[in-house]
Fold this sequence. Notes:
The protein is mainly β. It contains two helices and ten strands. The protein has helices spanning about 10-20, 85-90; strands at about 25-30, 45-50, 55, 60-70, 75-80, 95, 100, 110-115, 120-125, 130-135. A four-stranded antiparallel sheet has the order 1-4-8-6. It is globular.
Amino acid sequence: MKDPPVALPLEPARRAVLGCLRMILKIRKLAADAILPRYAHPGDSGLDLCANERVELKPGESRMVRAGIAIELPAGTEAQVRPRSGLAAKHAVTVLNTPGTVDEGYRGEVCVILINHGAQPFVVEKGAKIAQLVIASVLRVDVQEAGELSETRRGAGGFGSTGT
């Protein structure tokens, strides 16, 4: 059976060592020219997500950028929208609500909220790689109210409690 177009096949030996679980990510193009997310290299955790529109970001401005796709996640998973390190390092452009979460039941267009932290305007060209899409397992819990919580060495120590 041929692998889906959104994933690169792993060599059998590597798949056995890594214990990779392969699932199907169904993608519907909402625009004929939308680019399907894909892994750039074997072993990558994030699929490259591309813009389906041209957007100019002024310094300090944030905008939602459309990817032109909708997805159907495998049961028990979420998609995390994460920044691309190259955009951040070279242009100070990143994902504003990182990681953005796409829930399993969402079927609308995948969009990315980008922000320009730089001093110069930045143009997102149509087709440009704007984020990474990481598919992750979700652990579901039952919520239980408790009058007390167990003691730990850390206790309530939070922001800056271990030094700066």
